[in-house]
Design brief:
The protein is α/β, with parallel strands linked by helices. It is built from eleven helices and eleven strands. The two termini are 28 Å apart. Bound molecules: nicotinamide-adenine-dinucleotide.
């Protein structure tokens, strides 16, 4: 079997178009969605992510306010900047690009963001609401993965899903979302025994571990749907190449559908950030939010 390649770029474009249309409507009603983006230091990968986010925000009619701060910026400075942004009515979303330098208290910084403006969905209040199944802002990457899975399967009820990775920003919220979608969910991590056996059982595999090509196609179940969140830079013939956590070449001969890297989850993450920012602005303006699955139609 040769797998269907899930086109994350096309799905992200559809979502961005929906966001742009609704942002234009909102602007006509007097509210231009605003996103503050804070980048500390000069990590090249973070700079690329931030500039993609701000470019796409602008293209979707979302105003962005950029804060590029020196690598030695203190926790206190960040906390006072965020407090000031919390108070501004023209800022509906606040994004702090992670990772922050090691001397900064990331938990304190994220906890300072007003949960209503927490467009990354990392605040403890939003994470807790997700765990309780209440309406909340869902972290962008797992939300993008869910949209792709729903495009492939429609209803996920009863499916056996394996999430590999238990980070707060991908693995844990992904597992919560799959559970909310009535999957039977297993979470694997670095201490899990016999990962190949768990993979063989799973109809859905979401890999988010940050290890290049660590999941072999031979482990996967025939016809499974694989969402590869990993973004790993490797050297091939002296050139840098991006690969996922799944060994794409062996997996695509076996599974039913798979996301490529690049061109899978990455574009959806940014489109979901735009959606979360738009919905924060809509809530602030007190009108109807766009539901993620409705937005991706
Ligand atoms: P993380 O380092 O915070 O977490 C990695 C998780 O993987 C941990 O829970 C760990 O227990 C688990 N793990 C590590 N090695 C393992 C192994 N051999 N077997 C099973 N589990 C193992 O990483 P993260 O922030 O969750 O990101 C994971 C990957 O996803 C990275 O490659 C990152 O670059 C990528 N990522 C992509 C996007 C996107 O938009 N596509 C967004 C966020 C993260």
């Amino acid at each position: 079997m040769t797998a269907t390649i899930i086109d994350g770029r096309a799905a992200a474009e559809r979502l961005r178009n929906r966001v742009a249309a609704r942002a234009a409507e909102l602007a006509r009603m007097g509210t231009v969605p605003g996103l503050a983006v804070i980048l500390v230091g000069d990590d090249p990968a973070s700079q690329v992510y931030v500039s993609n986010k701000t470019k796409q925000a602008a293209a979707a009619g979302i105003r962005h306010f950029d804060y590029r701060l020196a690598g030695d910026t203190t926790t206190e400075t960040l906390v006072s900047l965020i407090r000031a942004l919390n108070a501004r009515p023209d800022v509906h979303g606040i994004l702090v690009q992670l990772p922050l330098p090691p001397h900064v208290d990331t938990n304190e910084v994220l906890a300072t963001i007003d949960p209503a403006k927490d467009v990354d969905g990392f605040h403890a209040l939003n994470a807790g609401r997700l765990a309780l199944g209440l309406e909340t802002t869902v972290p962008c990457t797992p939300l993008g993965c869910l949209i792709l899975l729903r495009q492939v399967h429609g209803n996920l009820a009863g499916m056996r899903a394996l999430v590999i990775g238990r980070s707060n920003i991908v693995g844990k919220p992904m597992a919560q979302l799959l559970l909310q979608n009535d999957c039977t969910v297993t979470i694997a991590h670095s201490r899990t025994r016999d990962l190949p056996a768990l993979c063989r059982e799973a109809e859905i595999v979401v890999a988010a571990i940050g290890r290049p090509r660590a999941i072999s196609g031979a482990w996967l179940r025939d016809g499974a749907t694989v969402i590869d969140v990993g973004i790993n830079r490797i050297e091939v013939d002296g050139k840098t190449k991006l690969v996922g956590d799944v060994d794409f070449d062996s997996a695509k001969e076996r599974v039913g559908a798979i996301t490529p890297v690049p061109g899978g989850v990455g574009p959806m993450t940014i489109a979901c950030l735009l959606l979360n920012t738009l919905n924060a602005a809509i809530r602030a303006a007190n009108t109807r939010v766009i539901e993620p699955l409705e937005a991706s139609e």
